[in-house]
């Protein structure tokens, strides 16, 4: 099965996710810069989530660029990833509206952890489909960065009950490590 529909559908869902998130940014009722201060937690939540959605979109694009075809199982694995990504706007809004209280920050971390789990599942499903010698399998290798990210999300969830700022620092740290696209895939695709 051709991968074009999977790419187009995924891109559309991700665009809608970003649109939903930006609609949560409500215009303040004043005209002074000070009137924006109350929106800072919501805005920070939006920026962090925008970066995360961008990271997933970018890496998803690279993953799909490295494979030849898709199967029904891959379509379901991709839907599983999109399901968790589609919860990011809700978790983002709850976290921002409640000024980074423990439970909303924990839920946000849980959604990030499940998104990462779904992405790993999708990647492993593609590797099984394409074969252990495929471009994607070679590029991913043992995926140490992905595994460490999942551990940091879990640590962030636990840390919310100590202090949510620790969790946010962990979530930001993971995002920073992923902002630069995975060059392993780009290099291998360029060589192919």
TrEMBL record:
Q: Name one GO molecular function term.
A: potassium channel activity
- Superkingdom field: Bacteria
Q: How does it sit in the membrane?
A: Multi-pass membrane protein
Localization per record: Membrane
Against Pfam families, the record matches this protein to:
TMEM175
Q: Give me the Gene Ontology terms describing cellular component.
A: membrane
User: What keywords tag this UniProt record?
Assistant: Ion channel, Ion transport, Membrane, Potassium, Potassium channel, Potassium transport, Transmembrane, Transmembrane helix, Transport
Q: Which reaction does it catalyse?
A: K(+)(in) = K(+)(out)
According to the record, the segments passing through the membrane are 6-25, 37-55, 75-93, 105-122, 150-180
Q: Which family does it belong to?
A: Belongs to the TMEM175 family.
What is the protein's name according to its record?
DUF1211 domain-containing protein
Organism source for this protein? Allosphingosinicella deserti
